[in-house]
Amino acid sequence: MNLFRLVADLSHLASIFILLHKIQTTRSCRGISIKTQLLYVLVFVTRYLDLFTGDFVSIYNSVMKLFFIGSSCYIIYLMRIKYKPTNDPSIDTFRLEYILGPTAVLALIFNYKFTFLEVLWAFSIYLEAVAILPQLFMLQRTGEAETITTHYLAALGIYRGLYIPNWIYRYFTEGGAIDPIAVVAGIVQTALYVDFFYVYFTKVLQGQKFELPA
Amino acid sequence: AEPVRVKDEL
User: Fold this and answer.
1) Which residue segment(s) compose the domain that A151 sits in?
2) Contacts of A55 in chain B (CB under 8 A)
3) Which GO terms describe its biological process (chain A) (predicted)?
């Protein structure tokens, strides 16, 4: 564990708490893409199957995995059941098959071993890289976002961004170790946040509302 | 550099 990864994981945790806080305090999931949230459930469930295979890493690692699975399911419960009337499917229109199809094919071709667990692991990595697209697409369509929602996205973006220096650090401290699947997908994932961060820094952090130019 | 799956990352 290095500082980049620790702060990244804490930022990931923070993003989930920000999202829960937004939903609970406004009693609404307006502006949140349920498609992106469903993809995160799929990401965590397919990646963390190793919880049950005896590949124990650490208490920290297992607790975080359980938290990510549990909290993502809880968010779906809030959106699908508790605050269902505030969920507007008519603006959440990104087609999931455009994401699920290509990532499944990629996972079947590019994996470390052609086994059930390894293919699912690769799938979850590719899926996570693009899982934010329905959310960003929705933002693009509506052209604006509540400030709290932008903080959620910023925390997620920081989490992904910090994994990159973590890999560089690990490359130099762990004898040239590199995980190409995670690194390439991670760079793609981080790149998807660039436009968002531009508006976040130039508007939201200057005290203005998140609004895209018409 | 050798490709290795980093198993301790989340």
Assistant:
1) 3-205
2) 7
3) protein retention in ER lumen; protein transport; vesicle-mediated transport
Buried-state track A50-76, b at ≥16 Cβ within 10 A, e below 16: beeeeeeeeeebeebbeebbebbeebe
Low-confidence ranges of chain B (pLDDT < 70): 1-2
With contact defined as beta carbons under 8 Å apart, do B3 and A54 qualify? no
Q: Is residue A211 part of a domain?
A: no
Taking CA–CA distances from A118, the nearest residue in chain B reads B5
Q: Is residue A212 assigned to a domain?
A: no
Residue A214 lies in a domain: no
Structure tokens at A43: 């990401």
Whether A38 is in a domain gets the answer yes
Instruction: Give which of A11, A25, A33 is closest to A130, Cα–Cα.
Output: A33
Could you report the per-residue pLDDT of A15-24, keeping only the tens digit for each?
999 999 999 9
8 Å CB contact of A178 and B4: yes
Please state the domain count of chain A.
Answer: 1
> pLDDT means per 10 residues in chain A (214 residues)?
97 98 97 98 97 90 97 98 94 96 98 95 98 97 95 98 97 91 97 96 95 86
Residues of A in contact with B8 (CB under 8 A): 1, 57-58, 61
